[in-house]
Give the backbone structure.
Amino acid sequence: MSIRSLLTTFAAALLISPVCAAVDDNAANYGSDPKISDLALIYAGNTNRPEWTKEQLQPYVTHVYADGHEEWFFDAFLFLEFSKGDIAYQNGLKLTPGTQSDWQDLLNIYFAENRTLHALDQLIEEKKQTLGDPTLRHRVVISCCAPTKHPTGKWTYSVWGKYNGNDIRLYSQEGRINAVKWYVDRVLEMWQQADFKNIELEGLYWIEEGLYTNGEIVPDINDYIHSKGLRSYWIPYYTNNKQYWSEWKNTYKFDMCYIQPNYAFLDDAGNTKPYSLLTSTVEAAKEFGMGLELEFETQAKSNALHSVNPTLHQHINDYMDVFDSEGVFSHAGIAYYSGTQGFIHMDKSTDPVDHQTIDRMARFVAERQKAKKASASVNEITVPAEKFAYIENGHIVLAPDSCCYDISGRLVGRGEAVIDCKPGMYIANNANGSSVKLFIK
């Protein structure tokens, strides 16, 4: 049977309904990730961080409400770190640049036995015994270390490490790209060796929130991440950073960008920031197709525990009020910054207001995840690929009333079509809401 005949035969079996639109058709809408609903930031690696045992991760994985009942909480976790001691994993800290062995040390912390990733996987398995399966599959994003200059502001000529048997020196652009490629490869190798049961690696995160130092290598890095079948993530700050975040997709090729308002923090003079900062950031997110970051912390000068600073605590509710009224909760991807251990402190707080606030947040998160599951924007393979999208002779073949996207969310084909695609991962959807991953080698 010819391709056209096969497509025509299957067309009669399709339920005719609107097909999902391309991301480019909705440029004025918020950005959302196809699989991740609510992404919790977990800072792991420096000496001031928790060890991230199962007990410490519990307030992020499940939430115990004021009435005592427990439910699943965040469905995704970003493990990241800026520095360890005097070693920097990004620019701007004026610390000693991390070498290959330093980057490996950080990965060893992420993959330590009974800690961090392993503890997360074990905790989810335990909670499934009492809570049942989670609403969404739990996913992980791991931060990339960034090639870092000497504290003098210059690239070093010393050997950083090796890639494919060759010395890497960070003064060259090729050297910097190869350093990060090595790191991506190591993440994948260690993930495969870990053989986790309850978590999946969704992508890599660029640790630098401004691209003034490494911007020129980020597109190549993201191309490499995409070639591995993974997605790339970024969380830039809003103020004085538009030259970078406005180009998050077109120039820098990130798949998902969450923008941080920074409304949660006191300024250098110790004053709270204006409410307009929050609303302006939300407007920018909608205009440029980004998700948002909801922020608070429970340490240092911007401590938002209710008993410490009721005004900053109210800012947490301001985020939720604006996110609710402006459709962020309904349509956008959201990342949650809580400092080093914000949800741990909120969970242990004896102030009922703290618990009321996190109860409210958890209800929003639960409803968002139920809606995401119901929408089935991108599921695991539920329908055999050959029925509405499949690969033949290096091409993707689509049935009528189906569409196909590359890993960045760009529409590559719609309807009855045979598509010539570059190597990589693609996602095809049909009119029934079913989705399938396709890999071109």
Summary: Residues 352-375 form the longest helix (24 residues).
